[in-house]
Structures are given as C-alpha cells and as structure tokens.
C-alpha cells in the first residue's frame, strides 16, 4: 500500500512539472514563505499592449477562457477601481480546493493591475499583473502572495498551486495571443 502511495505522489509531482501551456514560453515559480505561497509567472508575448490590456481587464469573460473558473463578474466599477467576484477551483490531479474570492482591483492602464483580497476562502491574496512593452515583445508578468484558509499538504500543496497558476496564467497568455491574431472567441 505504501508503494502505491509513493507511485501516486510521484505521478502527481511529475504531472505538476509537465508544462500545460503550449503558447508563449510561460515560466512559473512558486515557493513557500511561512504559511504563504509566493508565485511568479512570466511570458514574452508578440502582441500589442492594448490587446493584452483588453484581455487582462476583461474580468466578466474570464470564465469563458480561464480553466477551473466557473464564474467571474464585476460587482462595481468606479474609475480605475473595480470589485470582482470569482468562483472556481484550483489545484491539480486529485488535490483540488475551492476558490471563492472578492477582489479589489486597481487598474493602471496599459501597465499594471493590482489585486487585493476583500473576502473569500483565503486569509490573504494579493497580486500584481504587469505589462512591459519592449521593442519586440510585451513582457507579461504576475507576482502574487496567497495564504489559503486551509492547510496545503506538504508534498503536493506547492506543486498544486504552481500548476494551477500555470494553467490560469497560461490561459490569459493564450487569449492574448488568440485576440492578437484576430481569431474567433475561445471556447472552454
């Protein structure tokens, strides 16, 4: 029985390390900092910064192209401040956890989106998405810190968070690329 458990854990860790995003080269790291998980994601996109911005701030349509997100809706908007509610799941393989959040978002057009948890099933959830145009590409980056209300399992918790961020960030990358190419809307 213990051998089977080792095989299952090894398989889950391997699945977490397999890139799930065939789009632009997406790089994701996750590390623990006490009870928090610090996450960084980055991709270089051949896209117009305005198209990337349009996708990044299209919160009401996120559930159409971001995996594991069941709903995403704008509750309020005042200038560059937005209140968003999202429901879905995160994780990978057999380890899944619910995600229910309300986020206060501050938009700095064409440069940065800053998110802060207002309520939900995390103790803390803060993140920053950044768009940095260069001569050839738009660098798309995410830096986040999350502290779930539940305990992440020691062996699979960090790989689960990393895999989930890779899927979700990768979906944003693919949607930016799709819209940049003028393709039809993606179906989940």
Task: Describe the model.
Helix content is 28%, strand content 45%. Helix 2 crosses helix 4. The protein has helices at 2-17, 49-56, 62-65, 157-180; strands at residues 27-33, 36-45, 69-78, 81-92, 95-108, 112-120, 122-133, 138-148. It has an eight-stranded antiparallel sheet with strand order 1-2-8-7-6-5-4-3. It is α+β, with helices and mostly antiparallel strands and 188 residues long. Residues 2-22 have low confidence and may be disordered. It has a single domain, classed as Alpha-D-Glucose-1,6-Bisphosphate, Chain A, domain 4 (2-Layer Sandwich). It has four helices and eight strands, in the order αββααββββββα.
What is the structure about, briefly put?
With 188 residues, this protein is α+β, with helices and mostly antiparallel strands. The chain is built from four helices and eight strands.
Q: Write down the secondary-structure element order.
A: HEEHHEEEEEEH
CATH level-3 fold name: Alpha-D-Glucose-1,6-Bisphosphate, Chain A, domain 4
Q: What would CATH call the homologous superfamily?
A: START domain
Number of domains: 1
Which parts are unreliable, with pLDDT below 50 for 5 consecutive residues or more?
2-22
Second-tier CATH architecture = 2-Layer Sandwich
Largest sheet: 8 strands, antiparallel
CATH class: Alpha Beta
Please provide the count of β strands: 8
Rg of Cα set: 17 Å
**SSE-based structural type:** alpha+beta
Question: Outline, from the CA principal axes?
Answer: globular
**N- to C-terminal distance:** 37 Å
- DSSP helix fraction: 25-40%
Count up the helices: 4
Strand ordering within the main sheet: 1-2-8-7-6-5-4-3
The mean pLDDT is 83
